[in-house]
Specification:
It is a single chain. By secondary structure, the protein is α+β, with helices and mostly antiparallel strands. The chain has a single domain, classed as Jelly Rolls (Sandwich), CATH 2.60.120.200. Helices cover 18% and strands 31% of the residues. The chain contains seven helices and 16 strands. Strand 11 and strand 12 form a beta hairpin. Helix 2 runs antiparallel to helix 3 and helix 3 runs antiparallel to helix 6. Catalyzes xyloglucan endohydrolysis (XEH) and/or endotransglycosylation (XET). Cleaves and religates xyloglucan polymers, an essential constituent of the primary cell wall, and thereby participates in cell wall construction of growing tissues. Its EC number is 2.4.1.207. This is Xyloglucan endotransglucosylase/hydrolase. One of its GO terms (molecular function) is hydrolase activity, hydrolyzing O-glycosyl compounds. It comes from Citrus sinensis.
């Protein structure tokens, strides 16, 4: 079977060149200048010069017979969704803290109802008290962009979902982009390319809500027609199947844990220190500026400002005045998007989150 030519013949261009091109076309000049400059200063950083591994070195097939396709050299993987099944893979080891990352390219065109998830979880080991860290990419009707959300749970705290939802500053179907989850004993950072888009700093008041048990890294594509697009109004149209998401340049920089004994095979404090030394767990002033620009421009829902759902903000929330004035008491933007109340749904699919995604 032929592999996509673009994945063999050329490397994807620098992500921040693409930022500049796309933002020049669709954003105001001041936003282009400030966000691109802040982001470009990160692109030359050596922090992301990590060793990548092939699929077989770190992962195994999870589900979807025939819907996981490796490239001949084992470095690239495609996950397919058709009318019979989605597909997914999982890390061969559990990790207690780490940096989990991959270059991902999402399906294009008619993607309503799709969910592509890149997340850590231990739900198979602790079904009622599991921990989780999520990237969930939500498809859309033709002509409208993908959106995505981040979330985390600790000790089974699914009733207190901590969703944030965003748009992207690029088309994630055209080229590969890197998505990364940093998890230490003190903080969690979600990255898109080299841009930190969200940080959660552990506090005593969070208690068990901060993820603390060893987790595996999962990647899945599946039919989320009941919630992913316009609150379930737009379903997956299998006329356009199979839907294909591509993955490469995997990074599993963590503290491995024995799956039976649940005992780290090395000192996880050393892992935390190593991640700090590489600049992955500490956001620089340039990173802070890039994160602020991203959040000013691309976030459209934050649980921290959802006073209907949480009259008292959860303890890790840092309320930023410039963010707060942009949201109504539902946590959604004042202009655009839906202001429907949340309705909880069951976690029946790999990587599912806990509340309805608003219309966009």
């Amino acid at each position: 079977m032929d592999w996509f030519l673009c994945s063999q013949s050329k490397k994807s261009s620098a992500p921040f060149t693409l930022i500049l091109i796309l933002l020049c076309c669709c954003s105001s000049p001041s936003l282009v200048f400030t966000f691109t400059n802040a982001a470009s200063s990160l692109s030359s950083s050596s922090a992301f010069n990590l060793a990548t591994i092939s699929f077989d070195e770190g992962y195994s097939h999870l589900f979807g017979d025939g819907n996981l396709i490796r490239s001949p050299d084992g470095k690239n993987v495609r996950l397919l969704l058709n009318r019979f099944s989605g597909s997914g893979f999982v890390s061969s080891k559990l990790y207690n803290h780490g940096f989990f990352s991959a270059m991902i390219k999402l399906p294009s065109d008619h993607t309503a109802g799709l969910c592509v998830a890149f997340y850590t979880s231990n739900g198979d080991v602790f079904p009622k008290t599991h921990d989780e860290l999520d990237f969930e990419f939500l498809g859309n009707v033709a002509g409208k962009p993908w959106r995505f959300q981040t979330n985390f749970y600790g000790n089974g705290s699914t009733a207190r979902g901590r969703e944030e939802r965003y748009q992207l500053w690029f088309d994630p179907t055209k080229q590969f982009h890197r998505y990364s989850i940093l998890w230490t004993s003190n903080n969690i950072i979600f990255y898109v390319d080299e841009v930190p888009i969200r940080e959660v700093v552990r506090s005593t008041a969070m208690g068990g809500d901060f993820p603390s048990k060893p987790m595996s890294l999962y990647t899945t594509i599946w039919d989320a027609s009941n919630w992913a697009t316009s609150g379930g109004k737009a379903k997956v149209n299998y006329k356009y199947a199979p839907f294909t998401s591509e993955f490469k340049d995997f990074v599993l920089e963590g503290c491995p844990v024995d799956p039976i004994e649940q005992v780290p095979s090395s000192n996880c404090q050393d892992t935390d220190s190593r991640l700090a030394e590489k600049g992955l767990s500490v956001i620089t002033p340039a990173g802070r500026r890039a994160m602020r620009r991203f959040r000013e421009r691309y976030i459209y829902y934050s649980y921290c400002y959802d006073t209907i759902r949480y009259p008292v903000p959860l303890p890790e929330c840092v309320l930023v005045p410039s963010e707060r004035q942009r949201f109504k008491d539902t946590g959604r933007l004042k202009f655009g998007g839906s202001h429907k109340s949340h309705r909880h749904r069951s976690r029946r699919q790999p990587g599912a989150s806990n509340s309805e995604d608003p219309d966009m």
